[in-house]
Amino acid sequence: MENITFVRLGNSLVRHIRVVALLWVFGLFSSLSVAPSYTLPFNGSWDNQVYQVGELSNNSLWNLSGLWDPFQKRIDSHHANSFGIMFTSVTDCDGDGVSCDKEEEDGTDPDDPCDFILAHQNCAPTTAWKNMDCDGDGVTNQKEKEDGTDPLNPCDLIVEHQNCTVPDSWKKMDCDGDGVTNEKEIEDGTDPFDPCDLIVEHQNCTVPDSWNKMDCDGDGVTNEKEVEDGTDPFDPCDFILEHQNCTPSDAWKQLDCDGDGVTNGKEKEDGTDPLDSCDFVWEHQNCEPSDSWKQLDCDGDGVTNGDEKEDGTNPLDPCDYNPEHVTLPQSGGYLTVDCDGDGVTNGKEKEDGTDPNDPCDFILGSQSVSPSSTWNSSDCDGDGVTNEDEKKDGTDPLDPCDYKPESVTLTPSAEWNALDCDNDGNPNGTDPNPLKATAMDDSGSTPALTEVAINILENDDFLPNNDGNNVGITSLSQIGGSALGTVGLDAQTGILSYTPTLEESNTTVTIVYQVCNVAVDPNVCASATVTIQVGANTLDAVDDSFSTDTTGEGIVGSNVLDNDTLNGAPVSPGDVILTSTPTAELTINEDGTITINPGTAEGTYTIDYTICEVSNPTNCDTATVTVEVTQGTSNVIDAVDDTFSGNTSGVIPNSNVLDNDTLNGAPVTSGEVILTSTPTTELTINEDGTIAINPGTAEGTYTIDYTICEVSNPTNCDTATVTVEVTQGTSNVIDAVEDSFSGDASGVIPNSNVLDNDSLNGAPVTPGDVILTSTPTTELTINEDGTIAINPGTAEGTYTIDYTICEAANPSNCDTATVTVEVTQGTSNVIDAMDDAYNADTTGGAIAGSNVLDNDTLNGASVTLEDVILTSTPTSELTINEDGSVTVTPGTAEGTYTINYTICEAANMENCDTATVTVEVAEGMANIIDAVDDAYSADTDGGLITDSNVLDNDTLNGTPVTLADVILSSTPTAELTINEDGSVTVSPGTAEGTYTINYTICEAANMENCDTASVIVEVTEPMVNVIDAVDDSYEADAEGIIPNSNVLSNDTLNGESVTLDDVILTSTPTDELVINEDGSVMVIPGTKDGTYTIGYTICEASNSENCDSAIVTVTVDGIDDDSKIEVNQMLTPNGDLKNDFLFIRGVDRIKSSTLKIFNRWGVAVYEGTNYDNINNVFDGRSRGRSSLSVNDYLPAGVYFYIFNYETDEGSFTDSEYIYISR
């Protein structure tokens, strides 16, 4: 080996040999960085043996053969940049580029060109070697050298550079150890050197463990396990999560296999499934979800995941979604959860048609899961009881009127307060007992005979009608009690007034009343008892003062009872017991007069007395009488003015000026007084007191005075004036004659009449001749017909009463008389109980219309329950009730039964009579037949009265009778005949007038069950024109005017069709139908299917009294809801886009409209025109005159609307309630 040393100087190499030669190298060595000495092989020539020595900074290789020129110029070898290379000469036996010496050293075969260590190549391989394929991979050694692949490694090559025949051995090799031969991989187009680039199905040789343990796709599951699982070992998202048996790659961790927006790595940390697009932590989404994930609905709420992302709702929470964005069928977990917590799954709510997001919209029977705590503590129906407590109580949490009051723990809602659960007219909020209409007993007290007023509704559930809170109509009625006095019931104020009778003094009475709300059907009622303590009669003994002289004996005109009262009325001796203890000077006698004891000196004296009520001896009062005794105190003389009338000559009949004059209160007699008078030109008072009209006195009114003086004391005088009206021809002499009668203590005295013995000009008077007047006394009353009645409670005794009769033709011609009545015990009124007979059904119960008192009399007058006391002993079959009705015991067999009863006069319990009631019991005997009076008009031409039928208004058990039901009988009169068919005929030539005819109908099945009625016919001059309104019928399948309808089309006037000019058409609209002025018939919008009627009348235009009426029947069927104009009555402005505004169906058919909405106090909260469901709507906010601003939502509750609108069919008004809920 030869060592050659080079030195570098600038860009030149200098060879250090014995003979220095210079090598010029230009422009290549500016930054050479190699060792200072190299050993280079040399094999005969520089070109072949010296081929590289180092690297330049620009990575160029030296090619000494191209650079070496030892003959150019010399370069100093001691230059700082010089270096040396040792060149050694070598020998390569097999041409593989490794010297023989090196191969021997390496232990490779120096004669085998394919047995060497590539890194030990130290000389240039031969061309033959270069063209060889030592490793049999189909790429020549030279190409592999160029490619930088290993020519000794059959699996280190560039397949595309295979440039020689590929041996089968290489084809059958599996370079990458993936179980697929190299040949197959080349066929498949996979990389034979990439163990993770293959088609698994093409594995055709033994798969090494190394490949099995690899994780080609980095998903954490080895290739072997994926092949076992049937998953793709090259798809990082195709694996079984539970089979992950190695650490996933970072690349896999950054992937999002299920597209849910959470990387696989994050899902591994969270413990969620990276292969389940709906198993992730919502808050951990850290990448963009896939489009397929966005189209999914993970929680089954019907809203896609993508829409939920945009809405900000949770796609994993089936109860967190926007209902407006539901685009898919709700399914899966959504159907099994209970979003609103009401205990009903969402799926069941969908079946039921309730709102799964509204905890108060559900069907109670559908609850299948436990409600939420929020629902339990809520109060869906607003009744103040939590939903949970209602469930425990077994009441309905959706029914505000179904709850237990003792369970109320919350404040009821305003809506509940506005309801009226018990329909008593008092809203729950003010009702003491909202669930049951209740009337509470009341009590009061009052003095005797004094009216008392008690507010009986004050403690009841019901409100008086004048209470603004009353949502019903209250009625009051008396249904029982013991009270006999006057009862007044005022439903407007709730006041019961009661005035007790005299008999009720010092007793307790009861009044049972019933209060009802009659605005609902059926009426809601309750009853209670009012107890009234009636005080004792008010007895008032009033102090008296008298004066007298010392002559003693009784004081004239004195009576201590004169000014005493019982209940404000003067007492009578029979009312009270008078007691008094005489003093030395005074004595009060039993009759109330006062006597001065003899020898009493002048002076003022007092004496007390006490009066006690006869009927209540404990009711007493005491008064003091003061008497002034003076010397010579005169008797009291009183001349009283008189008035008479007479003709122009002679003494006036029955005139006497002394008749009304008194001495010490007693009528004077002519022997007690001296009468003096000075005659006038017209009048003279005679000595006997009569008055004479002087002859020639003209008509007129005249006066004359007279004086009377006491005979025993001529200085004791008094004067009076007599007035006489002188009229021409006042010649009738009227004479009222005194009467005397006797009777018992009650009612009209039989055969008593004060006129019987009175006369006018000597002839008996008749009631038409005179005017009878009389002032009743406590004991007696003279009736207008002259009979005399003894007032109830009158004690035995003799009583008087005055009366006056005046000539009817000359009311100033009068006379007065006195009636004396002796009242004795035992002179009984005539009481008469009459036998009765009824029919009844075997079903029993009260016999309709039965009352045993109906034909009973007292003194010939019908008795009442107040007149008599009714007693009867029930039998097994019959009972006579307190009110006189008769009841048959249920189950009573067919047959005839009797029962007795007795009535006794209430004022005289010994005055009684007994009668027998006979009842025939049989099947169907209880039918009630009712013949009702009729009235017709006809003209004098006679003949059949048009449309007359006496049976039209008659009923059997409340149902109109037919000719088959009854037998009609009637006796014709000269003017009228009732025909067999019930029509009425007027005899021809009957004069104008009003005529009556009776008829009887008897039940065909029970000829003893009959009733009679009267027919009244007014006969007038004949009407020329005959008008006939004929019934009509139509069918309608739409609202509005019925096509081709005209009620006049079949009506006639004198047999000719009528026109609008002929008649005046009138009709009252119903809730469903209207007859228009032109005769057309209109169906009101909103009318439901059904059959409806409406009446109308036509009157002759020229004779408005000539009229006839008819009925129009309309059958409504199949009205299309789309054609209806209807106001939705529910409003829920809560933003859920359901009923957020008041929807009116059919507004597109309305030409113009106005809508007003009022709150419960009548304040307008909305006013608008031309409602359109779009811009002009009521959305629950105030738009009226209420105190709320226009941006305030109205409180939940009941409101009232009035909707006026006009369509092509006409103008209409719709009014009803609406309900606002939240």
Description:
Helices cover 8% and strands 33% of the residues. It is mainly beta and 1222 residues long. Among the domains are: 100-167, no CATH class; 256-290, no CATH class; 435-535, Sandwich (Immunoglobulin-like); 539-630, Immunoglobulin-like, CATH 2.60.40; 637-726, Cadherins (Immunoglobulin-like, Sandwich); 734-823, Immunoglobulin-like; 831-922, Sandwich (Immunoglobulin-like); 929-1020, Immunoglobulins (Immunoglobulin-like, Sandwich), CATH 2.60.40. The radius of gyration is 66 Å and the shape is elongated.
| Helix content range | under 10%
Any low-confidence stretches, pLDDT <50, length ≥5? 1-88
- Reported by name, the CATH topology of the domain at 435-535 is Immunoglobulin-like
Q: Number of helical runs?
A: 18
Number of strands: 79
What shape does the CA trace take?
A: elongated
* Rg for CA atoms: 66 Å
For the record, what CATH class of the domain at 435-535 applies?
Answer: Mainly Beta
CATH architecture of the domain at 435-535: Sandwich
Mean pLDDT: 86
- Judged by helices, strands and strand pairing, the structural class is mainly beta
The spatial strand order of the largest sheet comes to 74-79-78-76-77
Major sheet characteristics: 5 strands, mixed
Question: Termini separation (Å)?
Answer: 110 Å
Looking at CATH, the homologous superfamily of the domain at 435-535 is: Cadherins
Strand content: 25-35%
Biased composition (Polar residues): 365-379
Region (Disordered): 290-403
Pfam families: CHU_C, TSP3_bac
Subcellular location: Secreted
